[in-house]
Structures are given as C-alpha cells and as structure tokens.
Design a protein that fits this description.
The chain folds into two domains: 219 residues, 3-Layer(aba) Sandwich (Rossmann fold), CATH 3.40.50; 154 residues, Response regulator (Rossmann fold, 3-Layer(aba) Sandwich). The protein is built from 15 helices and twelve strands. The protein starts with a helix and ends in a 13-residue tail after the last strand. The protein is α/β, with parallel strands linked by helices. The protein is globular and about 65 Å long. α1 crosses α11 and α3 packs parallel to α14. It has a five-stranded mixed β-sheet, with helices on both faces. Strands 7-6-8-9 form a four-stranded parallel β-sheet, covered by helices on one side. Strands 10-11-12 form a three-stranded antiparallel β-sheet. The N terminus is likely disordered. The longest helix is centred in the last third of the chain and has 25 residues.
Length: 450
C-alpha cells in the first residue's frame, strides 16, 4: 500500500511541478496571447470557440458561459471534477435554454490569481462571455471579482470562502454585486463544529491530551489563512494555546523538516487546510512515517475522490469537514455518469457541489427566460438582485445540500444551517468517513488515533 501511495504522490508531484515551472521564470504574456483554457478542447469546446457569431448553428440565440476552474496546475484534479460535472449538467438540457444555445468557455485559473484574472478578462473581451460560473480558490475569487465588476458580468455559484470576498462585496455592493453569491460559506460559519466535537471529547474523557496546544497550518492563500484564522479565534476562546502557525506554497509536497519541528513542539492538535491533493498526501504520509502523535484536522482531504489511494493508513483518525455523501437516485445517477464518462470517482465537495452549481445556474437561467424571454447579463443580474438576494427564489434540486438559499442578511454567503448549507465533521477509519458531528447524525464518537 505504501509503495502505491509513493507512486501516486510522486506522479502528482511531478505533474504539478512541471506545470508550475511552465508558468514561472518569465513575465506573464499579455491577455491577447494567453489562452483562456489550456486543456485540449472537447467537441463542445471546439464548437464554442470556433464561432464568433451570437447565433447558434440553427440560427438561434447564443449565451456564452464562462466556467472558471483550475484545469491545470496543482489543483488540476479538482478542475477535472468541475469540468466533468458542468458537462454532465448541461448535457441533460442539450446545452439549450429556450431559444438560446449555451456555449461554454473553459477559463483556466491555473490556481494563480494573476493568471486567472488575465484569462477571465480574455474570455470576456475576446470570447464574448456574458455570464460566468464556478471557481475553486479564494485567492482567485478575490482577483476575478475585479474583472466581473469591471465588465458587469454576473458570476454565479463561485467557490472561494475567504472573508476577503465578503469584505470586498460589502465595501461596494453596487460594484461587486456581480460576484453574485458564494458557493462556500465563510470559514467562521463552518469551523465551529470542529471546536464542539473536540471539546466534547475532552469533557467526556474520550480524549485526554496532555495540554490544549495546537499547531496551525495551511496553503499560503487567502483561503488557507482565513481558515486558520477562524480556527485560531475559536480555539483560543475555549482555552487552547497556538504554539505554531505556518503556511506553504500550493505545490509543496516535502514536509519532513516541518514535521520534525512539530515532533519537538509536541502539539496535541495539528489543524489546517489545503486545496492540493499531493500536498495533503505528502503531509499525512510523512507525519505517519515520522510518528507524529497529534490529532490532525485535514480540512478538505475528502474533496478529492481518490484521497484514500493517496493517503492510505495515514488518514486513519484524521478529522475533516466534508459535504454529505451522494444520496438519493439523482446523486447516484450523477456518480455513475461521472465514473462511466471520466473513469474516476468525484468527491461531493468538488464535483458534487460543482454539479449543483451548474444546476443552480441552469434553473436560474430557465426562470429568467420564462419571465423575460431573454438571457443576457442584464436580465440575469436583475433576477439575482430582485429574486435571489431577497430569498424569493432558491434552489432545491441539488444532490449535495438540501436547499441553496441567499437572503439580504447572508449575502454573499448562503444561508448556513440544518436544511440548508451545512458540512458534517467526519473522522476517517480505514478509508471510510464516519460522521462524528452533529450528534444527531453521528456514526461514532470522536476517537483518538491508536
């Protein structure tokens, strides 16, 4: 198993490093020369990029939709889940809403804010994108908010949880409202579950750490720092001491020096997040190899469909906060369609939420067309302001969350809580995610690693 893990980690690291090196060492080209998408085009993509007309092949209207995701770079695996999920969702409506043919423009963020905003600008100016959707990274969200605002392009269901997005949005809602509503809530609204399950385990005697000490870590991005900051405040409120805080480049996979430092500090808890599969695999397998005894929070590990193949036994008793597993016939149908078509298993946190984001956009656009007979940047944004933000319209046909709803009190975040947007806390045991919080959904109590 360990040989297999080393093979996976080496492969992902080499690919990620090669892609990273390809984008370093030279000045970024002007927008006119950098493609909006670096992946080889699919049949659908070739069609969307070959036409300069606003009319489809049958003479109908065209709506060009930008789909922003990391199709290359250290988070390319998540990008594959985003693209595949969007393709499945739009295939179900034959890429057609009313008299409008939907033509995608795949915007590659490359997990880099500067490259993402440049590609986004090109997609709008050269490819004619009228509305956009999805996104993975917080830092990319912060950068691309400026482009969406500049060109008044409504961006639907973008991931990127950092509170910097909220601060920017509220600094000038008239300008930044085009970043219409986050598909991942601010960390402080989601991390409290970790605190509650840890404190309950200590008070019940199931976990007896020598001291309440924690080392915080994360990728060196707005998301990584926002998550750690949220945890710091919440842990310190209940008596924890932060003994270390460190952030890493997105493509780092070598953690031996860091783990040796942690072994000297001997924290009871190691807590943080990352959006790179190879980074998590490196951190966890090397922590196991060097005998780190701390309880570990690896927030986001389960976002990668092949997380257990990458981490093996090193993921045992690790805590994570993940979206609910695919349930119901619709969720199972999506899972089977994705596996049959793309040959790997998507995660609920990346592929599942992206599929729901695409479905959310489709349902909204269908409603806009029904009410106005037009699909334009203006008609879509008017619907966002008057129907979405007021809570008059919400989306209840997703496969992950029960209801995606926004109100004047929550925007740009969704409504968070039971029946709406909520992540359970899980603990991994032999490749299975066991829910430990909230109590009414728990499969087992939190268990210290053996």
């Amino acid at each position: 198993m360990k040989a297999s893990i080393r093979h996976w980690l080496s492969l992902i690291a080499v690919v990620g490093l090669a892609l990273a090196l390809a984008g370093c060492g030279t000045t970024a080209p002007e927008a006119e020369t950098e493609p909006a998408a670096t992946e080889p085009p699919t049949e659908v993509e070739e069609e969307s990029q070959s036409s300069e007309s606003d009319e489809g092949s049958g003479g109908e209207n065209v709506l060009k939709v930008g789909v922003l995701a990391p199709y290359s770079g250290p988070a390319a695996l998540s990008g594959k889940e985003f693209r595949g999920s969007a393709e499945i969702a739009f295939d179900q409506i034959d890429w057609q809403i009313g008299s409008y043919e939907i033509k995608p423009v795949w915007i590659d963020s490359q997990s880099d804010p500067a490259k993402a905003s440049q590609a986004y600008e090109q997609a709008v100016v050269q490819e004619g994108v009228q509305v956009a959707m999805l996104n993975w990274h917080s830092s990319v969200a912060v950068a691309c908010m400026e482009v969406a605002a500049k060109h008044q392009v409504p961006h639907i269901a973008p991931f990127g949880a950092t509170e910097v997005v909220n601060e920017t949005f509220h600094s000038d809602p008239e300008k930044y409202g085009y970043w219409t509503g986050k598909w991942w809530a601010t960390p402080t609204k989601l991390t409290q579950g970790y605190i509650e399950v840890l404190e309950d385990a200590i008070s019940s005697g199931r976990w007896t750490p020598e001291s309440k000490t924690v080392a915080l870590y994360g990728e060196d991005t707005d998301w990584g720092r926002s998550f750690a900051s949220a945890l710091r405040g919440q842990l310190e409120e209940v008596g924890w001491e932060v003994v270390d805080e460190e952030y890493f480049p997105g493509d780092q996979v070598e953690f031996y020096p860091y783990i040796n430092k942690l072994n000297n500090l001997n924290p009871a808890l190691l807590a943080g997040t990352h959006t790179g599969a190879a980074a998590f695999a490196g951190l966890l397998t090397q922590a196991e190899e060097l005998g780190l005894e701390a309880m570990i929070i690896a927030d986001g590990l389960g976002r990668f469909g092949e997380w257990y193949e990458l981490t093996g036994s090193s993921s045992n008793y690790v805590l994570d906060q993940i979206t609910p597993a695919f349930t119901g016939p619709e969720g199972q149908a999506y899972l089977e369609a994705f596996e049959d078509r793309y040959g790997f298993t998507p995660s609920a946190s990346a592929g599942g939420l992206a599929y729901d984001g695409a479905g959310f956009f489709i349902a909204m656009a269908q409603k806009v067309y029904e009410e106005t007979g037009e699909l334009t940047s203006e008609t879509i944004y008017d619907f966002v302001q008057n129907k979405l933000w007021t809570g008059e319209w919400s989306y209840t046909d997703g496969i992950v969350m029960q209801e995606y709803k926004f109100t004047q009190d929550t925007i740009p975040d969704p409504v968070v809580g039971a029946g709406y947007y909520i992540f359970p806390i899980v603990q991994y045991v032999e490749g299975e995610a066991k829910t430990v919080f909230p109590p009414d959904q728990a499969d087992m109590d939190l268990t210290p690693k053996e």
